[in-house]
Amino acid sequence: MLNNPARYSALIKAEALRLGFMQCGIAKAGFLEEEAPRLEKWLQNQHHGEMNYMENHFDKRLDPRLLVDDAKSVISLTLNYYPESQQQDPEAPKISKYAYGMDYHLVIKDKLFQLLNFINEEIGEVSGRAFVDSAPVLDRAWAKKAGIGWIGKNSNLINKKSGSFFFLAELIIDLDLEYDQPFVTDHCGTCTKCIDACPTDAILNPFIIDAKKCISYLTIELREEIPKSFNDKMENWMFGCDICQDVCPWNRFSVPNTEPQFQPNPQLLNMKKEDWMDITEDVFKTIFKNSAVKRTKYKGLSRNIDFIKTTR
């Protein structure tokens, strides 16, 4: 296999866009020196709450060469999930926009495998692994190194042209490619809208999130009862939370996604407040078939609905 990094990179980026990805950037695989002390301090301060898996594979989180033998390149990709339509009843318990359609893990993994197959067929046999939010990869750090955007004060990756309503994914492969320039400019400036809008004060300082206070954590990750200290602070969210993204000025550039599998179940959007309050397990299974909401299970969603019902 002749080594032609510039040509290979151009081919990969073109195919990524053809597959429906919004952006594709490439960074050289190596140790994430800047992120190491930040991650260590965040864990030491117990900001990860019950997400004990964040303590595992510390070294692998910081060096993709420990995940893929002889890794040379980290290909970072984004996939838009911003919906064209949203829940109709303003009084209904709310679901984060990313969970409207099919589980993104399933959708993106399929696209990543297609991209990896393309690389093997068009460039030559490579070894690599696909990652979608389910393995020890610091995806925002790699996307920043790949020039896709900067990490905002709410800790989300932000792109000047498309905001932040997108998923992140990676292919880590043992092929040398042409690398993009890291994104070094912070375009948040003095804006603090995300910090000011968070009803639970989960954004401790710019870029530092206390997950234990985050509504997304409380409604998805937390397995115990939601602490009563969050009474009247959940803003009617029953799965996830979009507040810090909804108020971000950069998200005025968000456009509806064109991924058919992300199109929401019309029944979900049309359900009224009383429908959610009386939701049965059968209705849950129908609406959230192949959905990311299944992660919290019927029992978890019912717990969340009961909490916001009794505290509003």
Q: What fraction of the residues are assigned to beta strands by DSSP?
A: 5-15%
Described by the principal axes of the CA atoms, the overall outline is globular
Structural class: alpha+beta
**How far apart are the first and last residues' alpha carbons, in Å?**
63 Å
Rounded average pLDDT: 94
The number of helical runs is: 12
Q: What composes the largest sheet?
A: 4 strands, antiparallel
Structural notes for this entry:
By secondary structure, this protein is an alpha+beta fold. It has 2 domains: 5-85 and 96-173, no CATH class; 193-306, no CATH class. It is built from 12 helices and 10 strands. Helix 1 (5-18) runs antiparallel to helix 4 (104-122). The radius of gyration is 20 Å and the shape is globular. It starts with a helix and ends with a helix. Cob(II)alamin binds at residues 61, 133, 154, 157, 168, 216, 241-242. This is Epoxyqueuosine reductase. It is found in: Cytoplasm. GO terms for molecular function: epoxyqueuosine reductase activity. It is an enzyme of class 1 (oxidoreductase).
List keywords for this structure.
about 300 residues, alpha+beta, two-stranded parallel sheet, about 35% helix, globular, Epoxyqueuosine reductase
Structure summarized in a few sentences:
It is built from twelve helices and ten strands. It has 312 residues and is α+β, with helices and mostly antiparallel strands.
SSE topology sketch:
Elements: H1 5-18, E1 23-28, H2 35-44, H3 58-62, E2 73-80, E3 94-95, H4 104-122, E4 128-131, H5 139-145, E5 150-151, E6 157-158, E7 166-173, H6 193-197, E8 203-205, E9 208-209, H7 215-221, E10 237-239, H8 243-246, H9 266-270, H10 273-277, H11 281-287, H12 297-311
Parallel strand pairs: 3-10
Antiparallel strand pairs: 1-2, 2-7, 4-7, 5-6, 8-9
Helix pairs in contact: 1-4
